[in-house]
Write a structure and sequence with these properties.
Structural class: alpha+beta
Number of strands: 11
Strand content: 15-25%
Largest sheet: 4 strands, antiparallel
CATH class of the largest domain: Alpha Beta
Helix content: 25-40%
Distance between the termini: 31 Å
Strand order of the largest sheet: 4-7-5-6
Number of domains: 2
Order of helices and strands: EHEHEEHHHHHHHEEEEEEEHHHH
CATH architecture of the largest domain: 2-Layer Sandwich
CATH topology of the largest domain: Uridine Diphospho-n-acetylenolpyruvylglucosamine Reductase, domain 3
């Protein structure tokens, strides 16, 4: 049995109180909301905070009125008619995270701040000790790319690519300041230092842009169709004027240490109709940016090959094609 390490527990009632605790405790304090990522990590000794600061009792973080509070559960996101109708890509992403039980506990903010993953990192302490640990935690070698000086652990958040494609921003609050940043700027391409959020900052809410005229979607590849972390996530959003793309954003997840926009694909689509040829060219551009590493599930080279296919599926769905059979086929294949 893997046991939790000892820690102090604080349960503030406001954002200001939580921020003051973080400022006073320093880097040895960590935030916890649903705990679906942090608790297993603590059991495996990936993180051993001296103090846990719970956000569960902070009512301000549970709101859904114009913006999405960071402590809304993923189930609440999925159950929201507003999210499903206006921000379908986010709804699809949230609905495919983990299992119903974990979505009941896991939060939107927690999924956005999800720790990066790697075959050599997400193991128990004794397993990692046997290989002399890894660059991400306590070791000196990245076992995925032994010559690399940078950890290449992969980002596995589903909600981030969907929200990046939508053009969302997040609010970060500390005891001394508040700042709003585009969600894409929250992430760094570094498996260890993967967030630009400062240790004393709290991600308090997600601010969604106006949805008028926009369509969005999210496509996920995973080994098990019923639940699993993504080995590829493709999020796309387009604003149409008639049958012409006025603006487009495509984001990739699970192919690098951060989710990111493929700016060239979005720029290429602007002003064009979503013909088969245009979709094929945009999908090829998206695929060219994917650089998956051999540190997660399924074959590395096959994962690279299917990026273009999934980008094509996403754009065809936004064009109005009925892609339900394709989604069902992918889910069946994931189970085989």
């Amino acid at each position: 049995m893997m046991r939790m390490p000892w820690f102090d527990f604080r349960a503030p009632r406001s954002i200001a109180e939580a921020a003051k605790i973080l400022a006073a405790e320093g880097p040895q304090a960590m935030l916890i909301a649903g705990g679906t990522d942090l608790v297993p990590n603590m059991k495996r000794r990936h993180q051993t905070p001296a103090t846990l600061v719970s956000l569960r009792r902070v009512d301000e973080l549970h709101k859904m009125n114009g913006s999405l509070g960071a402590c809304l559960t993923l189930t609440q996101i999925v159950d929201s008619a507003q999210v499903r109708e206006k921000y379908r890509g986010l709804w699809q992403a949230a609905a495919q995270i983990a299992t119903p039980h974990l979505r009941n506990m896991g939060t939107l903010g927690g999924n956005l701040c999800l720790d990066t993953r790697c075959t050599y990192y997400n193991q128990n302490y004794e397993w990692r000790q046997a290989i002399d640990f890894c660059l991400k935690k306590e070791g000196e070698t990245c076992w995925v790319a032994t010559a690399s000086k940078r950890c290449v652990a992969v980002s596995s958040t589903d909600s981030a690519p969907a929200l990046i494609a939508l053009g969302a921003k997040v609010r970060l609050v500390s005891s001394t300041e508040q700042r709003d940043v585009p969600l894409a700027e929250l992430y760094r391409n570094d498996g260890i230092d993967y967030l630009s959020r400062k240790p004393d900052e709290i991600l308090t809410e997600v601010m969604l842009p106006e949805a008028e005229g926009w369509r969005s979607t999210y496509w996920k590849l995973r080994r098990r169709g019923s639940f699993d972390f993504p080995v590829l996530g493709v999020a796309a959003a387009v604003k149409m004027k008639g049958d012409t793309v006025e603006e487009a954003r495509i984001a990739l997840g699970a192919v690098a240490s951060r989710p990111f926009l493929v700016d060239k694909a979005g720029a290429y689509l602007a002003g064009k109709k979503l013909t088969d040829d245009v979709i094929a060219e945009a999908a090829a551009t998206v695929a060219s940016r994917a650089k998956p590493m051999d540190n997660t599930d399924l074959d590395l080279y096959w994962r690279k090959e299917v990026v273009g296919a999934f980008a094509g599926y996403a754009l065809k769905e936004l064009r109005g094609d009925d892609m339900r059979a394709t989604r069902a086929r992918i889910a069946r294949q994931s189970l085989e």
